[in-house]
Structure prediction request, 389 residues.
Amino acid sequence: MRVQVVIIGGGPSGLLLGQLLHRHGIEAVVLERKTRDYVLGRIRAGVLEQGFVRLMEEAGVADRLHREGIVHDGTLIAHDGGMFRVDFTEHTGVPVVVYGQTEVTRDLYDAREAAGAETIFEVEGVELCDLEGERPYVTFTAQGEARRIDCDFVAGCDGFHGVSRKTIPEDVRTEYEKVYPYGWLGVLSETPPVDDELIYANSARGFALCSMRNPGLSRYYIQCSLSDHPGDWSDDDFWTELKRRIPEEAADKLVTGPSIEKSIAPLRSFVTEPMRWGRLFLCGDAAHVVPPTGAKGLNTAASDVHYLYHALRQFYEEGDAEGIDLYSERALARVWKVERFSWWFSALMHRTADQSAFDLRMQRAELEFLADSKSAQAAMAINYVGLPY
Ligand code: FAD
Ligand code: DHB
Prediction:
């Protein structure tokens, strides 16, 4: 079998890239290690930048997103018993949209199936070969059968634990990493959100986030220990702890109920350079990871997809390799700025055992500065709604 592009990974970045290429007549096959239901069962991101929404429109899959997505013009930040608001549209002219990663992925799978584009699920033993030559190929096993697909390019959209990044020789790759000494315990519950907007809370007991998916579905997170397991936390324990970490006015109106999903995510900042090696391009979590504070993971995967999809169009439609040659540089320039924002926002909102009294005063001073200064709020808003690409 031969196609123009083999996409490794059927998560949001692989599916979005596949759909955009398909709309422009560039043929791609997606190889996914898991089943479709498994991918859709992962509860992850929930806030989309305008750039992401635009790409979904370009891919022809934004109808449900426009119908069901909830537009947010600002966010609330709580600390020391009080709360202030950062207005996104006042400072940037654009809002963000609350629409779950699960729904994005479902829309993309549905569109892929409707277009008759091929996805091969439950692939094993994926190997990427001859990436430095003109004729790369990918080998794998599917339903017990050994297979080979020849192609022009490989897009490594297979997440942090995928095979693509590791295929790049170690002496070519430079990896930058910071692992945070805490995780996030997340709960999904069929209860109305506590507020119309998200609440990011810095409290003496640690960080908390009140988010949502739709008017009847809430998503809440609390900072937890890395040694915790979801089973250690009963629903009651979770709600009690959440209420202690958010302002009283929010805690009083919080509607609790049984959790329908409960999971723990570790927090990490990670970047690998370069994001291209020969005919392999890394995209999304395969190349970089951010701590979730500020909801940048999924959105940054989308900005990579933007650069890569335009580079491939330029190559196939104009015979020009400029975009391909500049892909890594362009994508990384934006990635590092997003890494900075996510690292800054994480440091501002979390508590750690090694913070000194001085560190805590610095955190409070920075929060008070953000509450008082329109310029600081503008800087936050510009990053939160998404840097341009
Ligand atoms: P992924 O979503 O990881 O998709 C990669 C796909 O590749 C997967 O389907 C995987 O099964 C497949 N794959 C892996 N290896 C292979 C292989 N060898 N062969 C074939 N297929 C393979 N971001 C936010 O903005 N907000 C959040 O709240 C948030 N929460 C998160 C919670 C968790 C637990 C995690 C892990 C991430 C979270 N993120 C969050 C980040 C966000 O979900 C990711 O940035 C986003 O999923 C990246 O999309 P991706 O397609 O690049 O990678
Ligand atoms: C969500 C996750 C985030 O990391 C964030 O900053 C905002 C919202 C969410 O899952 O809803």
Q: What stands out?
A: The chain has two domains: 5-71+96-177+267-347, 180-266+351-385. DSSP finds 13 helices and 20 strands in the chain.
